[in-house]
Write a structure and sequence with these properties.
single chain; 272 residues; alpha/beta; D-Maltodextrin-Binding Protein, domain 2; 2 domains; nine-stranded mixed β-sheet; 10 helices; 36% helix; globular
């Protein structure tokens, strides 16, 4: 009987579904809620934008996963925990992680999916033309982010780290922080998400370019890394990458009521 099944499978071109054992050997993908790069559960306004579903970076990685024969399973968790696991356990991928000097030797950097500006923004009347001007002021950042590490490295002591960027948007709107350091796209998205007024912010110094990566455990085997790198090259070559970027450039963002905020109650999202 087993021989017959194998023969039929070969004739029909059928392959069995992924088993638990097969999934255990594939790259474990981790993410956090980092809109507009990754959404665990996209808000209604995102889902209503044609072609937009789970975040720019996550959709690109999902396309790559399909091409390498990966299940597309992504686990969502708090950002600090995702980084801890990727640094201490083998065969783990993490998205969307900004490449920074302090992180350089902690991961294997697979592909740069998108590049953004790490920019300092301030409330009205706050001089943010230079990062140094904000040294003595309360500055909001995403916890365990490259922005937080940079401020600590430069001796900032009034760092207000939050688990999600929309919280920084709310704090700067309420003038509970004077400045905010984050990638430009995340600032824009978060301000729209809370119904804030972007024109009330001063956009100041671009502190550095933020290269946002799919990264992996430091000891990821070369063969596995090359599969993902080749998949990304294919996604770019056939126009899929540009299609996804174009769709997100048309993203419609409307305020999300506080009682509808996403929470981490569903730790796993299965790929499309």
């Amino acid at each position: 009987m087993r021989i017959l099944i194998v023969l039929l499978a070969a004739i029909l071109g059928w392959t069995p579904p992924a088993t638990a054992q097969g999934r255990a050997s594939e790259l474990r993908l981790l993410a956090a809620e980092l809109p507009p790069y990754t959404f665990q559960i996209p808000p209604a306004n995102v889902s209503e934008t044609p072609g937009v579903d789970y975040g720019l970076v996550l959709e690109v990685v999902s396309e790559m996963a399909r091409r390498v024969g990966h299940s597309g399973r992504v686990e969502f968790m708090l950002w600090g925990e995702a980084q801890r696991i990727a640094q201490t356990q083998p065969n783990v991928g993490i998205l969307a992680l900004t490449r920074t000097p302090e992180r350089e030797n902690r991961y294997r950097w697979l592909v740069n999916i998108v590049t953004d500006d790490l920019i300092l923004v301030g409330s009205q009347g706050i001089d943010v033309s230079s990062l140094g001007n904000a040294r003595e002021r309360p500055v909001g950042v995403l916890g365990r982010s490259g922005a937080e590490a940079l401020l600590k490295e430069r001796g900032f002591t009034r760092i207000k780290a939050q688990p999600e960027e929309w919280m920084n948007a709310r704090l700067i709107q309420q003038r509970r922080i004077d400045a905010w350091l984050a990638p430009r796209l995340m600032v824009i998205y978060a301000m729209h998400e809370i119904g804030g007024n972007l024109e009330a912010l001063n956009f100041g110094e671009i502190v550095r370019r933020s290269e946002i990566f799919l990264a992996a455990s430091k000891d990821l085997p070369d063969a596995e890394a090359q599969k993902w790198e080749q998949a990304f090259a294919a996604v770019r070559a056939d126009g899929t990458y540009q299609r996804i970027v174009d769709e997100y450039s048309r993203l419609k963002i409307v305020p999300i009521p506080d009682d509808m905020r996403r929470r981490f109650g569903q730790p796993v999202w299965e790929g499309r």
